[in-house]
User: Which sequence fits this backbone?
């Protein structure tokens, strides 16, 4: 006697259903992650440079974009977010060691396989900037930033302008002190003149004239 087992009978077994569901879920999850990594925007895209760009090209790109989106020049919310992303990208790519590790992480993401360990996924957040966007304004030194990225000439002009303003303020304060001193001296002179006049006896000359007539 020949026994034939139907596939439908096998599918009714609970462990079989659970196993197939788990495999299907893992395949879809892995494929979605691969798609996400392939479409993920990199720091090179943020700075609008090639992955083979030199350090000078990266610095020039940062200079150009920071001039365009800096909060002091552009007050929009979009510009603020853009400037934060630009700063984060530059923090990573400006340093040789962090850039090298970041490039390696991109290669890992692009070649990810279905059975790749989950520990590899931490690369997505490891190389973010250490600067917290919510805290950056508390210690952002615009004067130092300007000196580094816009050259010593502009920094020197700003410094001269500040020094000139300080000297002008000091001169104005000295002028005020001189006026106060002048008014004080003049007040003393007037006081002594009035006091002298009040002590003069005008009756003495008059009595002398009357005596001469007699």
Assistant:
């Amino acid at each position: 006697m020949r026994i034939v087992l139907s596939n439908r009978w096998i599918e009714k077994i609970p462990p079989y259903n659970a196993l197939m569901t788990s495999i299907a879920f893992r395949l879809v999850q892995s494929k979605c992650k691969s798609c996400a990594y392939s479409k993920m925007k990199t720091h090179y895209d943020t700075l609008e440079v090639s992955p083979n760009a030199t350090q000078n090209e990266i610095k020039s790109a940062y200079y150009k974009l920071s001039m365009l989106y800096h909060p002091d020049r552009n007050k929009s919310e979009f510009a603020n977010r853009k400037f934060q992303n630009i700063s984060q990208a530059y923090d990573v790519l400006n340093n040789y060691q962090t850039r090298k590790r970041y490039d390696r992480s991109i290669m890992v993401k692009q070649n990810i396989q279905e059975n790749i360990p989950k520990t590899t996924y931490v690369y997505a957040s490891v190389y973010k900037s250490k600067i917290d966007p919510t805290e950056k304004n508390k210690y952002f030194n615009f004067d130092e930033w300007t000196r580094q990225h816009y050259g010593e000439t502009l920094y020197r002009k700003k410094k001269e302008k500040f020094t000139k303003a300080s000297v002008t303020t000091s001169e104005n304060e000295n002028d005020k002190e001189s006026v106060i001193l002048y008014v004080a001296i003049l007040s003393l002179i007037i006081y002594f003149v009035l006091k002298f006049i009040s002590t003069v006896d005008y009756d003495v000359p008059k009595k002398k004239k009357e005596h001469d007539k007699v």
Notes: The chain has eleven helices and no strands. The chain has a mean pLDDT of 71. Residues 25 and 210 are 135 Å apart (CA to CA).
